[in-house]
Task: structure prediction
Amino acid sequence: MSPENTIRWERKNWYIFASGLFAICTGYIALRVPPAEGFLSLTLAPILLITGYCILIPWAILHRPSPATPQPDKV
Result:
C-alpha cells in the first residue's frame, strides 16, 4: 500500500469522530425520553442520529490534513 493511500488520523479527525459518537449516543438517549410522540423522540433524535452516522463519522474518516504550505523566508 502506497503512503498516499493510507489513512492519516490527526487530532482534528479524532475530535470529529468523538463528536459523531457523542451525537449518536445523544440521539439514542433522546429516543428513550418519554413521551414517545414528543419533540425529542420524533424530531431531535433522528436529526442527531443522521448527523452522526451520515455526516460526522464519514467526515472524520475521509478528512485529510491540508498540505503543509511553505513559509516564506524572513530576511
The chain has one domain: 7-62. Helices lie at 11-32, 39-62. The two ends are 41 Å apart (CA to CA). The mean pLDDT is 88.
